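hiii, so i know i said id send this last week but things got crazy w the move. better late than never?? heres the sequnce for the chain we talked about at the cafe, plus the structure i predicted for it. fair warning i was half asleep when i ran it
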Amino acid sequence: MRLIGVASLALALALTFVLSGFGPAVTAQQDGQAIFRNETFGDEQFWTDVLRMHEVVATVAPADALALGLKVDVEALPRKLIIALRTGQVDLTDPAVTIELLRLNAVVGIQGKVNEAGQLTSIGTTCALCHSAVDDSLMPGIGSRLDGWANTDLDVGKIVALTPSAGLDEKTKEEFKNWGPGKYDPRHHAFDGTNLLSLNPTSLPIDIPSIYGLKGVGFETFTGDGPISYWNSYVGVGQMGGKGSFNDPRIGLFITQTPDLVTPKLLALLDYQLSLLAPAPPRNSFDRAAARRGERLFHNEAGCATCHQPPNFTDVLSGPVAGVPFLHDPDEVDMDPAYADRTATKQYRTTPLRGLWQHAPYFHDGSAPDLLSVVEHYDGHFQLNLTPRQKADLVEFLKSL
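okay and structure toks below
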């Protein structure tokens, strides 16, 4: 069926001054939001030219795209389409509907170009692909954006494995397919603008992290490789495939592309990311009396606050040298060293405790399915000898953060 559409939403572009006095200048935060949601950094060179994903997406039904974890922004949809979706009048098995959603700029984290003939000519990705969800207010997978929330439904590996490109061999595709929803391996490959480089021969996928509540933390990655913009550069260039430059001798990765479309946008992107607050726990979602008892345990008998220091519940900035992260050896916290060994620091950062109620599973590899598993991990490792009630109280406190 032919959907009734409206013009694509105009992107908010940063202005350094107000032209002729008409209207306010766009703030860095607004510019950063536009970058986060809509900027591909020219990564069409990877997703379109190399992986040829536009050929695949043009044949994918909306129902299948939603099943792979892709999300749709309800606020980008015209009212008639919203009503049609709500009343079941849209054929979600028709790939033409997918193309229309892309034309409307409604697929979160995907930028698609559609020509006048209705053909999808290119595909690019944005930061929002992995780090935005929706509230499912219209239907599962379709709702208002939740920027900063990890897309725990997104099956990146299975999506990439759909490529018709010969650039990925079948063994690699099978590895990708085994990642599962909400998982990604940022240390498996990197794209240098021309070639897909192998960083490690086997894959160790980790959880896609939520990126809210980062203000004051200082270091974003699980292993504290660098400040937030370091990681944005690493991902924007080497993982998304954007046109830019990234160089880190610690991991032997050197990528230079001109013009650099990534680096000039990092400051505005950082400004927006730091504005994303951790979501408050839902009303009546935890036992307040138990949480108060758990808070006392957290700061006293259990000793959790030794590393999870308020107000950001991490000690990553507590080291003797400013700007150098304070980190922990894997055996110090009883963590599998395999992922850390692939990074610049070979250590792990104390994770800030933010919005924990929202993003199970826990630890970098998702090895703790729930908060009780987290508590029991440290109870055993540090021989805390907590009682079942004390463990439950700690869980209620963690749910309150």
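btw Residues 207 and 363 are 8 Å apart (CA to CA). thought thatd interest u
miss u guys!!
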